[in-house]
Amino acid sequence: MSLVQKFVKQKILVIDDDADLIKMLKISLEKEGYTIFSAHNGVEGIKAAFEIRPHLIILDLMMPQMDGYEACSRLREMTNIPILLLTSRTQKDDIVRGFREGADDYVTKPFSQKELKARVRALLRRNGYEEELIRKYSDGFLGINLETQKVSLDGAPLELTTTEFNVLACLVAHSGQVVPYREIIRSVWGNNYGNAPPIVQTYIAYLRKKLKQNSHNHQYIRTQWGKGYWFAAKEKMKAG
Description:
Layout: E1 11-15, H1 19-30, E2 35-39, H2 42-52, E3 56-60, H3 68-78, E4 83-87, H4 92-100, E5 105-108, H5 113-126, E6 136-138, E7 142-145, E8 150-153, E9 156-158, H6 162-173, E10 179-180, H7 181-189, H8 197-210, E11 221-224, E12 228-231
Parallel strand pairs: 1-2, 1-3, 3-4, 4-5
Antiparallel strand pairs: 6-7, 7-8, 8-9, 10-12, 11-12
Helix pairs in contact: 2-3, 6-7, 6-8
């Protein structure tokens, strides 16, 4: 069996007006391998959900401009992805209202990070996303372990910077598919970085040099001019 499996680094959108809470969740959930995006109110959150298309949304109920109930209702009109509510309200009617507006689960504040992570995993698993994770790629020359973030080339460790690895992982995540510049930027640098293809081109050049693309009769990173890049796995794979 090939060691190549489909990989999707799950994207989680956190919608909350508490900057400190967002920072805490970002640090905590990124350690679990998720890519975290954020919005500071319901209006921004709906726009971000449309643009990012996350795998899961963590939504606070108490926010300015548009509260979590309305945001949840509008989000549910545009997507079926799981929504996890954060709430300091513990009254039964408040919880029921959240479910009525389209929420899938909730966590009451204050909450333990362990509980939150467990609920996130459960929601993703329930929606089939957890099964899409890739663990390793190996073809006898190039080896990539996405859990340990280690890469080897021709049997020797390949030193990559964190950014270089994240760019490579993003491409492997969509192996065989063109990944637009903007999607690479969002995955590696975050939603607020902007749209800057030159920085992607720079890191692609770094990776191609380190992968020695012209020395082993195979190009792992291919260019789709005007659109983005794609990862081309070797046809003959090393046995698992």
